[in-house]
Specification:
The protein is an alpha/beta fold and 244 residues long. It has nine helices and nine strands. 45% of the residues are buried.
Length: 244
């Protein structure tokens, strides 16, 4: 990364991850870093929906602070895709979809952020007015990445992947889903998480789960909001375990 390295962020995150299987020793050795602070940022793109549900990110930040020892800012930040310096302040960038980035500069910045060690989390909104077809959305992200980051491969993650248990145990090795107006969507339910891979490194993740809609308290079965935030905590911690 740029001013603050991924290694530093890795230390910050795992200092607060002594509870995670396989990371207890590292967490204890880095306990003196627990007072440091990290931030959560949304990638600003030309999409009209890039900040959708952003007001509920405060709920997610509070969950982080209650359920981990990570000292995360109780707010959210903007990382404009046209400003690489701004983007590189954050090891993980949350996006409603990168396929909307059309400018050559913006596309180059997405690629450069990832190549410097950044992690890209793409999560589709459950609202059919925003995401009319989830299979098409997945293909749009895959096509974009193939163009700007030809060295990447998008792969479906197996149910036994570490991301489903690195902090919380996610039932059945399948991410929780939100459904528009609580109406079950068979097409969407068939999707798990998709890793954006550069060799053995996971450089990003594509989710069709609508996790953001979960922590925004959209109409859903009881406990769905917590399930979505648990999944996000796992993703955040796992992302910071990846080499730059």
């Amino acid at each position: 990364m740029n001013a603050i390295t991924r290694l530093h962020f890795l230390k910050l995150l795992l200092a607060g991850a002594a509870f995670a299987p396989g990371m207890a020793g590292l967490g204890r050795s880095l306990g003196d870093l627990r007072g440091d602070r990290v931030g959560w940022a949304r990638l600003k793109t030309p999409s009209l929906h890039w900040r959708r549900h952003s007001e509920s990110d405060l709920v997610l930040m509070e969950f982080f602070r209650q359920q981990t020892t990570l000292n995360i800012d109780p707010t959210w930040y903007v990382a404009d895709v046209e400003n690489l310096t701004e983007m590189c302040k954050f090891p993980l960038l949350f996006s409603q979809g990168v396929h909307m980035v059309q400018s050559a500069t913006g596309r180059d910045h997405v690629a450069e952020h990832v190549r410097r060690g950044g992690f890209l989390l793409i999560d589709a909104c459950c609202n059919r007015d925003i995401t009319p077809n989830f299979d098409v959305f997945l293909q749009q992200q895959t096509d974009f990445l193939a163009t700007v980051l030809p060295e990447t491969m998008v792969v479906s993650l197996p149910a036994n992947h570490e991301i489903y248990r690195c902090r919380f145990q996610i039932p059945n090795g399948h991410p929780p889903h939100t459904f528009f107006n609580n109406s079950y969507d068979l097409q969407k339910a068939g999707h798990g998480l998709y890793g954006i891979m550069i060799g053995q490194r996971m450089a990003g993740l594509i989710s069709l789960s609508g996790l953001q809609c979960g922590w925004a308290h959209m109409i859903a079965p009881p406990g769905n909001d917590v399930a979505c935030m648990r999944m996000l905590v796992n993703i955040y911690i796992y992302a910071m375990m990846q080499g730059g």
